[in-house]
Amino acid sequence: MTQKRMRTIEVAHFGGTTRVVDSGSLDALLTERNAEGFNEFWISGEAKFPVLVISVREQNAAVHFFPEDRNPGFHSIRHEAPGNAVVLRTIGEEIQVASEAIVSFEDARRAAHEFVDTLALPTTLKWFQL
Fold first, then answer.
1. pLDDT tens digit string along 32-49?
2. Which of 17, 32, 79, 121 has its CA 20 to 30 A from that of 107?
């Protein structure tokens, strides 16, 4: 099966910054986790903005879209009833994310692919504008 070629994107994550040029490489990178099951991916094109941020803990993810600098952007939402906050992690700190902002890793992965194709707010997720 041929890998889908896409625009070159930069993905900053716990392991550094990686240039990605095909869909298979993006999928492989998005599955990387640290020893505690966490990672965070800042996905952008040639410019710093727009940027899609995916915070992942095992198979849970929170997705944030920043269209431009100094714009609070949008965060993912789901339809299930709210529950307890979920703890995700960024480098050096834990963050608590409201359960209604948590989506499956698979949904976040699909949103990442749409984002790199369009560099726009992915339509594969529901969003709350901040």
1. 988 788 899 999 998 999
2. 17
Count of domains observed in the chain: 1
Q: State the greatest distance between any 2 C-alpha atoms of the chain, in Å, as a whole number.
A: 42
The structure's pTM equals 0.87
The answer to whether 59 and 105 are in contact (CB under 8 A) is: yes
Provide CB contacts within 8 A for 94, sequence distance 6+. 87, 88
Quote the CA–CA distance of 82 and 78 in Å, as a whole number. 9
**CA quadruple 109, 115, 72, 70: dihedral positive or negative?**
positive
Q: Which domain holds residue 11?
A: 5-129
In angstroms and rounded to an integer, the radius of gyration of the C-alpha atoms of the chain is 14
